[in-house]
Amino acid sequence: MTGWRVREPGPIRARPLAQFTMPVPEPGPDELLVRVRVCGVCRTDLHVAEGDLPVHRPSVVPGHEVVGEVVAWGDRVGGDFGLGDRVGIGWLRGTCGRCRYCLRGDENLCPESRYTGWDEDGGYTEYAVVPAAFAHRLPDGYLDEELAPLLCAGIIGYRALQRAELPEGGRLGIYGFGGSAHLAAQVALARGAEVHVMTRGERARKLALELGVASVQGATDSPPVALDSAILFAPVGTLVPPAMGALDRGGTLAVAGIHLTDIPRLGYQAHLFEERTLRSVTANTRQDAREFLEFAGKHRLLVTANAYTLDEADRALTDLKEGRVVGAAVLIAG
In what residue span(s) does the Alcohol dehydrogenase-like N-terminal domain sit (predicted)? Predict the structure, then answer.
């Protein structure tokens, strides 16, 4: 099979990815072997390729928004999956199941958690393996290229929305409007929220308006109303102070990314007083995934997917880095 590995982390212009050819992997006793049909291109892949995240697996195959079909499985896998079943592989791919975080339902905080495309090879290739317990059933009514972004961008956006504690009918601010944001906005709108978008790209602003948000403005501009909640999707720490300043009393800002540049100094009176809250989002649980994918099955989401061939993975990451991707990018593997 062919695919892409992170040869040596570095700036995307230095081409840190390299193509490879290797045998199709064998599934372990508890794993599924999946023929990759589509793999989403996530900003986390960019952080892995550029070295913003520490190396967990040298020469890792990136990609954790995988839609494919089951072609084989290990001898300890039960009868939940059959040949040809369409399944999804997401970011979270393993936890210990024994620690206090796992036992209380916070498996995303497990110290032994493992991740697709970081700890183990991911989907920038033709075949991938995944523990059967962490494979996802996918909703009907979507094309493969529409489903792929749901498996991280959608799930993380959903968890970020939960962490932002948006009240019913509340006013939500979204900072940055890429793959995850354009899905989270639709979930919030379906729940009756009033959504305001702050982003730099004209095409992204146009997409936001087409989806039905109440207003769009520049990334550092103030929204027209005080916000009950906000989510920061852009990995830009300098946006934290204006986002916190835009919150109404008791408001919450959730930072959705796995990586963020340094946050400037926050003022207590200007940014935190009156019980404003700043919180992070760390990965997701399988329960988050189940809830979101069930929601997507009941509410048809518009997924803006920009398609690239598998051979164009480095170009897709470059376009993502340079802000040329509106919505999400996906690699068509077969």
Answer: 28-140
